[in-house]
Design brief:
Layout: H1 3-12, E1 19-22, H2 27-31, E2 38-41, H3 51-61, E3 68-71, H4 80-84, E4 89-93, E5 104-106, H5 115-120, H6 142-151, E6 160-164, H7 177-190, E7 195-198, H8 205-215, E8 220-221, H9 228-236, E9 240-244, H10 247-254, E10 259-262, E11 278-281, H11 301-304, H12 308-324
Parallel strand pairs: 1-2, 3-4, 4-5, 6-7, 6-9, 7-8, 9-10, 10-11
Helix pairs in contact: 6-9, 7-8, 7-12
Bound molecules: iron/sulfur cluster (SF4).
Length: 328
């Protein structure tokens, strides 16, 4: 969702250099952005201040004499390194009390605007908003895609359908495993020539194992098996993707893959998959969106009642569209 900001900055400074300071678990996503020159690894431990590491990193950045820094997260600690690195212009949303860390502040709350525009606003003077932020777009790389497929024993042209069953946020964003399993069975019957694989992090491996067992199909469980860069390359080359509202969903959208995005407690108006090839499955119950990690009502009807056949129909439509429309 930060890529449109990169595109706007690049448009404003075509000759400029854009480096991104990012934790290792998202570095490959920024590396896949055509606008980004270099990704620099940031300290990773969520919630910890890590004074020593941040100070050392700031010292490492100083000789680069950056003119400006856009601070995307709202936390005070995320604004610390650019301040310590002596970057003169530090742009960010108001966020946590960080009056002197950010010296060009914008005031708006993340729930008030779609996240893409929320980030894209940073490219403009305060008071001006990014009404027409471009949709996120990641750059495909044929040789990386081929290599990632080879590492998984997949041929370059072998049809690949990816299921992304994880959502770090919590169970209220995870479609039930039995539904993913039923979807996998339908897909295996519809496209017997395709490889159907589950993709995600090692934390999602158990979920994927359960889905594979419940489906009774020969599914590939790639959760935890691929570095993130390979996961991106596989998504980029997939013929169809079904994902919960997660980072994987946004990656598939940014690669313009035929995609079905499953929404539970979150709101597709706030964080939609911004792609003409994406379809949204959301029941929009009276109680939704509640944005909770676990269902406060205890039933998670928003996901439990979302039928596999409905998601399957959406997937067929998304994939049909792909064969009718040339890639953009
Ligand atoms: S309250 Fe409604 S939207 Fe929230 S998790 Fe429960 S069923 Fe889903």
């Amino acid at each position: 969702m930060a890529q449109p900001l990169m595109a706007l900055i690049r448009r404003q400074a075509p000759e400029g250099r854009i480096d991104v300071l990012a934790p290792p678990h998202v570095g490959p996503v920024f590396a896949a952005m055509a606008e980004v020159d270099e990704v620099i690894e940031a300290p990773n431990q969520h919630g910890k201040l890590q004074w020593r590491e941040r100070w050392q990193l700031a010292r490492r950045l100083r000789p680069s004499h950056y003119d400006r820094c856009y601070v995307l997260p709202n936390s005070a600690k995320s604004a610390l390194v650019p301040f310590l690195a002596g970057i003169p212009e530090r742009i960010g949303h108001h966020g946590e009390a960080r009056y002197w860390l950010i010296n060009r502040r914008r005031v708006s709350g993340p729930r008030e605007r779609p996240m893409v525009e929320f980030y894209a606003d940073l490219a403009f003077e305060p008071g001006r908003e990014a009404d027409q932020a471009p949709d996120p777009l990641l750059a495909r790389d044929a040789s990386r895609e081929r290599a990632a497929r080879e590492r998984q024993g997949l041929h370059a042209n072998e049809p690949l359908i990816l299921l992304c069953p994880g959502a770090e946020y919590g169970p209220a964003k995870r479609w039930p495993t039995r539904h993913f399993a039923a979807l996998a069975s339908l897909a295996a019957m519809e496209w017997p020539e395709a490889t159907i694989a589950l993709i995600g992090s090692a934390k999602e491996r158990a979920l994927a194992t359960e889905i594979a067992a419940l489906s009774g199909q020969d599914l590939r469980n790639l959760c935890g098996e691929t570095p993130l860069a390979d996961a991106l390359a596989l998504i980029a080359s997939a013929q169809g993707v079904v994902s919960n509202d997660s980072g994987m969903m946004h990656v598939a959208a940014a690669y313009r893959r035929p995609l079905v995005a499953v929404f539970g407690s979150s709101d597709p108006r706030h964080t939609p998959p911004r792609s003409p090839r994406a379809r949204i499955e959301w029941l929009h119950l009276e109680c939704s969106p509640c944005f909770e990690r676990t269902c406060p009502l205890g039933h998670t009807h928003c996901l439990n009642k979302l039928a596999p056949v409905s998601v399957f129909d959406s997937l067929k439509k998304a994939m049909r569209l792909e064969t009718e429309r040339p890639s953009r």
